[in-house]
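How a chain folds remains the central question behind the approach discussed here. No coordinates are needed to read the tokens, only the vocabulary itself. For completeness, the protein is quoted in full, as a sequence line and a line of structure tokens:
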Amino acid sequence: MPLTPAPVEPITPDPVRQVPHTLLTQSWLDLTFLHWAADPVDVAPLLPAGTAPDTHDGLTYIGLVAFRMYRAGWFRMPGIPYLGTFPETNVRLYSVDRHGRRGVVFRSLEASRLLPVAIARSAFRLPYAWARMAIHRDVDTVSYTSSRRWPGPRGARCRIAVHIGERIEEPTALEHFLTARWGMHNAFFGQPVYLPNTHPRWPLHRAELLHFEDELVTAAGLPSPAGPPVSVLYSPGVPVRFGRPARPGGLPTP
């Protein structure tokens, strides 16, 4: 069914809405963002019902984002040191719903802690996978490795290494489009869900891709990237809060 036209929220480096009720807290550290342009027609079938590809100058994007999850926790309680801290790598698409809310759609999320993977798969219906992972930082170089354990395809790998460049004082419109995403679209028992988030403005750096091997994008049902990424960015990270699923289009809440 075609989406009903609605005003689409602006692309801004600062949060577009308040998140008064905290569901989850976490920090995302040592992030590398790799992006490839894609035809919206090709990715539309992979998005949840009620959403469409979000576009910038007629194109949408496939993102591969590697980082360190730090102290994930519930509500406003202190984050968990061990179980809440682990490497993560996700494959994501960019979405907009009929209410004009922009977000991301995760096609896969690798994490190195089995218990958080099991909780995210069962409680949030997110496509998390348990993987053997590592992150190494050496002055201005950071590398990420991942090999999937469960579920399949077992052994799906990703290896990324980047050189961190200068701080970006004025990110481009595309760089804001790819990073300043204030919510997540998902499906929960067949119903659309929108989970809002908020965090400070991204500190972004230019980055040079030194090494790249990947099987996660194709394992997520997407075509293998053709050529080098059109955008390579690094960020030291931000603290993040997720709110309760938003209405309309969210889970029923009290």
Notes: Residues 248-254 have pLDDT under 50 and may be disordered.
